Fold this sequence. Notes:
Layout: H1 2-14, H2 29-47, H3 54-61, H4 65-72, H5 75-97, H6 103-120, H7 122-131, H8 140-163, H9 170-191, H10 196-211
Helix pairs in contact: 2-3, 2-5, 2-7, 3-4, 4-5, 5-6, 5-7, 5-8, 6-7, 6-9, 6-10, 8-9, 9-10
Region (Disordered): 1-20
InterPro entries: DesT_TetR_C (IPR054129), DNA-bd_HTH_TetR-type_CS (IPR023772), Homeodomain-like_sf (IPR009057), HTH-type_TetR-like_transc_reg (IPR050109), HTH_TetR (IPR001647), Tet_transcr_reg_TetR-rel_C_sf (IPR036271)
DNA-binding region: 53-72
Amino acid sequence: MAGRRRSKREQQVTGARPAAPVTRVRMTGTERRQQLLNVARALFAEKGFDGTSIEEIAHRANVSKPVVYEHFGGKEGIYAVVVDRETQLLLDRMISTLHGGHPRAMLEQAATALLSYVEDSHDGFRILVRDSPVASSTGTFSTVLNDIASQVEHILAQQFAARGYDEKLAALYAQALVGMVALTGQWWLDARKPKRDEVAAHLVNLAWNGLSHLEHKPKLRLG
């Protein structure tokens, strides 16, 4: 009682008010899981897998470490979910744009789709290429590119057959085209100049002006 009276007297003298209690918004399990994924995604993009810790994920999410473990089992678990989501997002975006038709239209669709993903989801793209670079023959991003190349190969094979080229070479050209766009996307992730559509136009210019004058049986002219 004495403490309460003293506190009231202090308020009268100093005009101070007791601090309002801190209220925390309770989240559902689904909301908390999404929050942790958002926090982890930003950290993985910034620091990579090895540079990110469960402690930092928990700290930025303002939760205890056991909460992260409860939802994902550890850093590997939350990283796997982040990568799977980004992989599916990129794959869906790329494949949904490849409608076939004229080969040049297909090139424009593919280039614009990848660069749009880089522009809209730069953190996700950074995660994919940081630990699984474009030039690697293994890893998640390589798998995505192979899936996209398979779609391009199917379309190219039809075009090759219609124009008298060897259909068996469609896989080689598909890998070359997809790889060119992907490597350019990785460079543009940091450069961001020129603008997206201009970069796509230059990619199509290089690819199409080469494809439109393909030799049926090319040979090296060195030596």
